[in-house]
Amino acid sequence: MSTKPLPEATNFIQSIINQDILDEKVQTIQTRFPPEPNGYLHIGHAKSMFVNFGTAKLYRGKCNLFFDDTNPSKEKEEYVNSIKKDIQWLGYNWQKECYASDFFDKIYQYAIQLIQMNKAYVCNLSPEEIKNTRGTLTEKGQDSPYRTRTVDENLQLFEEMRLGKFKEGSCCLRAKIDMASPNLNLRDPVIYRISYDRHYRTGNKWCIYPMYDFAHPICDYLQNVTHSICTLEFEDHRPLYDWVGITLNFVAKPKQIEFARLGMTNTVMSKRYLKKLVEDGTVHNWDDPRMPTLSGMRNRGIPPEAILDFCQRIGISKSQAECEYSYFEACIREYLNYHAERTNVIVKPLKLTITNYEGEEEVDFDINPMQTDKGKRKRRFSKTIYIEQDDFSIEPPPKYYRLKPNGYVRLKDAYIVRCDGFIQDKMGNVTEVLCTYFKESKSGQDKSGIKTKGVIHWVSEADAMPIELVQYQLLLQDARYEGQDFQERINYNSEQIKKVFAEKYILSLSENTVMQCLRTGYYKIDNHQGKLRLTEVVSLKESFKSK
Ligand code: ATP
Ligand code: MG
After folding, report:
1. What is the C-alpha separation between 204 and 273, in angstroms, rounded?
2. Which protein residue has the closest C-alpha to ligand 1 atom 10?
3. What is the pLDDT of residue 481?
4. How many C-beta neighbours within 10 Å does residue 39 have?
5. CA distance 372 to 362
């Protein structure tokens, strides 16, 4: 009997593992996170990490980082490095760093073993012919004419494949399973193919590479993986995964468990598409703040804690569902609302002069009203301040509680003012608002008796610092893309740069600080080519409604 108490299962994967422990099939839980180094990690991978690293942690087990690098034409060292950086940024630590390419010799030995067992053969059908003779869900496949080659002949041909005697695509190694199997993956799947592309780690040592379905169960086994967690599209491959373990007589057979991929509205989550966005210049790079990559999110200022919280909340299941992007944004907001310090920016400045105010004074400002222990800081209040153009209206709609001619409004943390007049340019644009203030109305000690419904934010002229502010819209316009080319959904206007006024105070905050700009949004202090600018992390409220 197992002596460690089992955690209470909160999802189906944990139920399976608990049962395996109770049945004494496993002791120490070993998982792995298996990215292919063919691109940067995205938010879907965060979910996979959450499941793999999270499960290992729950059971005090281990999780390896396993690079699934069996495809030399697509893989690069750059991707390996970015993947490691992103995992660490999310706060995960792997037990061992492994590569499928570290196991190429062993995988090759296993292939030879299969040939010796008469369970694999070299097939000279072209990829096209293999596809065409595979049959369908309702029709059996046809045996390859090469299926009956002798063990010796196969050993000889496989050796020649390895030595580079054949052209790419001219032959391959296939497992000899069952061309009549109801599962298409068992109809003599290809397990080795020829490729003369240079591998970023093994160089030109190999010109034959194992296919995922053959390499993965072997690599799992060689890492002592107990539970090989992957996404649902591999469910139909599980019989093949198991066939490899059974046929090669693995002592402890890893168990493959599948869960539903994370899908999100307004997002593409495939490295292939993300790569295209980078290559055709739609975005600046893989780490563009509009990208759903983890590096993009880091650049954007999205806290890793918010990503993990999101993964926790959406849960793990076997049913495929698409998550609203706005739900992810809500998780970011919730985290930042609690953690981010408050500051003021004025996006579209309008000058406001208080005609009866002279000199200046300091007013108290909450650094973070959600964490009162953070205290207050002083802000300068003066005769000339900037407010948002949108906070003043000559012909306001009903229930407009901000500033209007002859109307009253409170300037946050300062005084109530009344609008006595305004100045317009030739075009009719308001260029300045003239107000009087009420001395007894100061926030916190208001004895004025004046009732106001609106409170607006401001930055005093002496504290106003011009700075660039970048706002983002979703990169993909509509929520879903059934039948629609993702290219058609790209919002080419998804990055907007504005010149705004921010408080000089932000110069005292360190780069990459994320703050809440009151009534405006969450922004990160970004060093862009040696110049400070503010980049939007997330808006304050849901900025779009999905269909
Ligand atoms: P992509 O299509 O983005 O390249 P992939 O599945 O080919 O995705 P891998 O690098 O092979 O990417 O993925 C590593 C692990 O992350 C795999 O176990 C895969 O199942 C998982 N994964 C990838 N995308 C998602 C997703 N959207 N949700 C959950 N897990 C995912
Ligand atoms: Mg892949």
Report:
1. 29
2. 35
3. 56
4. 24
5. 19
- Cα 35 to ligand 1 centre (Å): 7
Element (H, E) at 387: strand 384-388
CA-closest candidate to residue 49, choices 98, 100, 94: 94
**Minimum CA distance residue for ligand 1 atom 24:** 44
Q: Is the CB of 533 under 6 A from ligand 1?
A: no
The two beta strands, 455-456 and 408-411, are parallel
Q: Mean per-residue pLDDT for 163-173?
A: 98
Distance (Å, whole) CA 12 – CA 53: 16
When pLDDT is cut at 50, 70 and 90, the band that residue 462 belongs to is very high
Task: For residue 231, report the distance from its CA to the centre of ligand 1, in Å.
Answer: 7
Residue 4 a catalytic site member: no
- What is the pLDDT averaged over residues 263-281? 91
The yes-or-no verdict on residue 265 having pLDDT over 60 is: yes
Secondary structure (3-state) at 463:
helix
Residue 531 falls in the annotated catalytic set: no
Could you report the per-residue pLDDT of 368-408, keeping only the tens digit for each?
999 999 999 999 999 999 999 999 999 999 999 999 999 99
52 has pLDDT over 60: yes
Instruction: Please tell me if the CB atom of residue 269 comes closer than 6 angstroms to any atom of ligand 1.
Output: yes
Distance 216 CA to ligand 2 centre (A): 12
Residue 542 has pLDDT above 80, yes or no: no
CA dist 10 and 8 (Å) reads: 6
253 exposure class (CB count in 10 Å sphere: 0-12, 13-18, 19+): buried
Distance from the CA of 529 to the center of ligand 1, in angstroms? Answer: 33
Structure tokens belonging to residue 52? 């793999």
Confidence of residue 495 (pLDDT cuts 50, 70, 90): very high
Q: Does the structure show a pLDDT above 60 at 77?
A: yes
In this prediction the pTM is: 0.93
Please report where in the chains the tokens 């792995």 appear, as a residue.
Answer: 32
Q: What is the pLDDT of residue 297?
A: 98
Three-state secondary-structure class, residue 220: helix
> Is 172 touching ligand 1 by the criterion CB < 6 Å?
no
Of all ligands present, the nearest one to the C-alpha of 234 is 1
Pair 196, 162: CB distance under 8 Å: no
